[in-house]
Amino acid sequence: MSPLRSNSPLRTAVVGAGGIARTSHLPALRTLAAEGRAEVVAVVDVVEAAARALADEESVPYASADLGSMLADVRPDLVVLCTPPAVHREQTVAALEAGAWVWCEKPPCPSLADYDAVLAAEKGGGHDPYASIVFQHRFGSGARHIGALLADGAFGRPLVAHCQTTWYRDRAYYAVPWRGRWATEGGGPAMGHGIHQTDLLLDLMGPWTEVHGMAARLVHDVETEDVSTAQVRFASGAVATLVNSVLSPDEVSRIRIDCELATIELTHLYGYRDADWRITPAPGVAAETSAAWLDFGEEVPSSHLAQLRVLVDDIAQGRRHATSGEGGRRTLEFITALYRSAFTGTTVRPGDIGPDDPYYTALHGGAPGWAPAGAQEEDRA
């Protein structure tokens, strides 16, 4: 398919017939279908009955349990992956090799090695298919408005930031066998829960220069952590703290940035509207200046739909999407650095984790007390 065929609906296959497909991806695709911009042409799930049931519900003509067969039979333009992170690399590479763009749920991949294998499968041209990640918080009108003001220096220099994803998951949640395991969930709350807030913080604050992390397993019988914290320094000189937890009965997602001329705060849980942002001007800031900061323009809540609209536009125009390539890798690199720092007690900087580093291929890095028993035995061998 040529990305310039912008008058035709993007023929889309949904892979994974679980909750995230039903609650987030398909509603967004329905909206774009009503606008003539997308068309769901296939559903795939390892449980064929689940694929057929969802296809019937959505009046989708093709259902299968085999991704390869679907790619050969249908040749979709876009493949939406709503599957566990352990299979993202394999499925993304297969879709790219079949000539399809990919929009992949978070976490993107269990490791930097997997992510770089996906990048290697891309042809790299401006009009060639690529893979992008679901980081929908970047695409709400609030984040775009605040991001533009920060980039323009309207708030003065950013000085101190705080980012928290403090949620609650009970023992029943972790009774599901694949949860809390490195190989199947990809990581603990730093990877699987807090990744959206972390991604938004990095998007607002710009490049980071060092991270020092801590992690703990305080409540749950899991391989991964159930809480982590980090101290971060950015290239601007600003410093920040991060907290990712699944131990917090009072659940909240929050970002706060103190700048020279204002404090910006976002408080929500799983998605935000413009009203969830608060700007507090510093003493002496002119009233007309602070009033102008509150003009967010047309409201676009953070959502899968908000990001999908931009992705479809980018594909049609032959542009790189913001969460593809290095735009997606930077968040995974930061989270990998947080784990490496937490498990080694060292400060980690961008570029420190290369192919010869154990954390490049697994977020646990083979660390005693954190790596699965088999992984530790392999490291000793």
Descriptive overview:
With 381 residues, this protein is an alpha/beta fold. The protein folds into 2 domains: 10-133, Rossmann fold (3-Layer(aba) Sandwich), CATH 3.40.50.720; 140-299 and 321-381, Dihydrodipicolinate Reductase, domain 2 (2-Layer Sandwich). Helix content is 37%, strand content 23%. It contains 15 helices and 13 strands. The protein has helices at residues 19-34, 48-58, 67-74, 88-97, 112-121, 141-152, 171-174, 182-185, 189-192, 195-205, 287-293, 304-317, 326-344, 358-361, 373-380, and strands at 10-15, 38-44, 63-64, 78-81, 101-104, 131-133, 158-168, 208-216, 227-234, 239-245, 247-259, 262-268, 277-281. The strands form 2 sheets. Strands 8-9-10-7-11-12-13 form a 7-stranded mixed beta sheet. α1 (19-34) crosses α12, α4 (88-97) runs parallel beside α5 and α6 runs parallel beside α10. The longest helix is centred in the C-terminal third of the chain and has 19 residues, at 326-344. The protein is globular and about 65 Å long. The mean pLDDT is 95.
